[in-house]
């Protein structure tokens, strides 16, 4: 049974393409596999670090853009407040002018009535004088 087991083990090794003739060769083969695995892990770590650095740079760039947009937004808000104040002042002036215009219109109507009344009085006086 042991001979058969050794035979099958040897056959399996041959099928896998690994010819190990001594325990030292087996250790060397194992070290080569581990070195390859370590090299692959180092490459993956390097790629991950590069990706991390790229993401960090993108984050810094995005934060700079957000700060710039926030600064612009603050400036626009300030300008808008100034324009609102100016508009409010103009609205107040317009309201005052409309009130004055309304008063002037009332005064004009009163003066026109007074003029009509005086013209009527004058016409009446002229008529009376003409009659006398």
TrEMBL record:
User: Which GO BP annotation is one of this protein's?
Assistant: canonical Wnt signaling pathway
Which sequence ranges form a coiled-coil region, renumbered to this chain? 38-114
Keyword Cell membrane (UniProt): no
A single Gene Ontology CC term? cytosol
Alphabetically list the UniProt keywords.
Coiled coil
Q: What name does this protein carry?
A: DIXC1 protein
